[in-house]
Amino acid sequence: MTRARKWLVGLGAVLGLLLLLALIGLGLLPRDEELARRLADQLSTATGVPVTVGAVQWRVWPSPRVVIENVVTEQPKPITLRKITLRPNLQALWQRRLQLNGVLLEGAVVPHLSVLALGRSARSGPPTLPLQLDAQPLLRFEFSDVTWESRLGMAVVYEGEVAFDAHWRPRTARLVRPGVTPPAALSATRQGQDDRWAVRTTLGGGTANGELRLQTQPSGGLRLSGTLQPQGIDTAAALAAFNRKPVVAGKAAGTTTVSAEGDSPASLARSLHTASSLRISRARLLGFDLEKAVRSTGTEHAGTTPLDTLTLQLDTQNTAQGMVITFSNVKASSGALTATGKARLLNQQIEGEFTVDLVEGLVGVPLKISGPLKAVKVSVPRGAIAGAAVGTAVLPGIGTAIGARIGATLGKIFGAGPDPAPNAKKPPPTPPPSPRQR
User: Fold this and answer.
1) For the chain, how long is the longest CA-to-CA vector?
2) pLDDT level of residue 361 (50, 70, 90 thresholds)
3) DSSP per-residue string spanning 261-282
4) Residue 246, preceding peptide bond in cis (omega within 30° of 0)
5) 347 in Cβ contact with 322 (< 8 Å)
6) Contact 272, 226 (CB under 8 A)
7) Which of 8, 48, 105, 151 is an S-S bond match for 121, by CB 3.0 to 4.6 Å?
8) Three-state SS for 110?
9) Contact predicate 18/98, CB 8 Å
10) What is the pTM assigned to this prediction?
């Protein structure tokens, strides 16, 4: 897919209306039904999927505008745009230039998987117009009641606005989750004419402020980078703001770096990566009693786990299969236990491995979690618990690392590991040390 086509798909109905506005500017004004048919044909050609348009109306008085209603893609989960209002710049049209003073989108449903399918079988690039596209083709874009559906069908509603400088550079931008308490919103302000934006975020009763930068690579591609400073964010409230079930409660603070590369805004979004080093104070592990899980060898784990300290590295990476969330360098402690480990989350499926130390003599107990978040499975080898306890008795006070090794070794002796094959060759005996080594 060419860069021009990617821009067309990314901007959706806005660029699909270029032909319509050209016809208006030239005075070729067919009936509304004909306008709707022509627009549907242009959008179908540009996106590669059939598109229907319910109605198109143009008005000159009291101000020039074009109103498009009920744009729907013919897909298993259709993209629907309820109402789009465009306000063309008449002075630019008289000069045979195309510029929109504003675009207002009211009501939309945008499934993620349906967006990914756009453009795969597009039959041509953007339409050829008798008008010159202005260097600042759009001044302002506003949207409300826009529902984004994730790959798994989770719906989140947004509203916001973007004011543009030339060459599609946002001057100011605002994104809001309406009706959420505490408020969840993001705003960005361009720093002069540089491709730098000051970012202000409110989420979960805290903030995450910083700066984003956009660079043009020698190859012509784009690179986004930046740093944010999360402070005082209630993790449970932050996840609930996006209709996600919280796993950990507490106040998060730390540093987040942002990076992405691509040749268009859409490809930047598809490659977006964040890396956060976080400290969570007054933390509680929700719906999971870690000590109970260890002592019951995974058969019971309902409850909560209070934690004195919790630090971790949290990475997110957008991929074609969805957002991959990786938890690494996880270190948790409380009066009852300490735990270290890592986990990976994709499409609400989690896989993780942890090592748990309890104060009553269990050192280096391996714990595995897997399955869907709604029904996580926990496994703790019985032999590993026996091995870990004996390991602590043999080497008191050595610590988690050595205790874990001894626990794993003795766990095999107690039946945690597989039996050797009947015909397997025994390893050669270790030769005795030489007198010099002694």
Assistant:
1) 105
2) low
3) EESSHHHHHHT-EEEEEEEEEE
4) no
5) yes
6) no
7) 48
8) strand
9) yes
10) 0.77
Q: Which residue has the tokens 């080497």?
A: 395
Closest listed residue to residue 181, CA positions, set 206, 159, 147, 205: 205
Is residue 293's pLDDT more than 50?
yes
The CA angle 258-260-266, to the nearest 5 degrees, is: 125
- Please report whether residue 140 resides in a domain: yes
Tell me the per-residue pLDDT of 203-225, one tens digit each, with 9 for 90 and over: 999 999 999 999 988 888 899 99
Q: What is the rounded CA–CA span in Å between residue 79 and residue 82?
A: 10
- Please say if the pLDDT value at position 422 is more than 50: no
> Can you tell me the distance from the alpha carbon of 120 to that of 80, in angstroms, rounded to the nearest whole number?
19
Rounded to whole angstroms, the Cα distance separating 59 from 62 reads 8
Q: pLDDT for 107-161, tens place per residue?
A: 999 998 898 888 765 555 555 556 788 889 999 999 999 999 988 888 999 999 9
Among 374, 9, 322, which residue's Cα sits nearest to residue 151?
Answer: 322
State the pLDDT at residue 399.
37
Which amino acid would we find at residue 137? P
Whole-number Å distance between alpha carbons of 311 and 276: 11
CA count, 13 A, side-chain hemisphere, 438:
5
From CA 275, how far away is CA 326, in angstroms rounded?
A: 9
Among residues 304, 324, 306, 301, the alpha carbon closest in space to that of 377 is found at 301
Residue 143 CB coordination number (10 Å): 19
Please tell me the total number of residues recorded for the chain in this structure: 438
Three-state DSSP class for residue 153: coil
Q: How many separate domains does the chain show?
A: 1
Query: Cβ(137)–Cβ(126) under 8 Å?
Result: no
- Here the tokens at position 418 are 């597989």
In a domain, 89, yes or no: yes
- In order of 89, 156, 235, 248, the CA distances from 239 in angstroms are 42, 12, 6, 10
CA–CA dist 143, 108 (Å, integer)? 9
Cα angle 57, 165, 116 (rounded to 5 degrees) comes to: 65
Domain hosting 157: range is: 1-168
Confidence (pLDDT) at 130: 61
Question: Is 315 inside any structural domain?
Answer: no
Residue 269 has pLDDT above 90, yes or no: no
Domain-located, residue 419: no
State residue 233's pLDDT score: 95
Nearest to 136 by CA among 111, 87, 169: 169
Give, for 337, the enclosing helix (H) or strand (E).
strand 337-346
Q: What are phi and psi of 187, to 5 degrees?
A: -135, 150
For 426, counting Cβ atoms within 10 Å of its Cβ (0-12 exposed, 13-18 middle, 19+ buried), the class is exposed
The pLDDT assigned to 45 comes to: 87
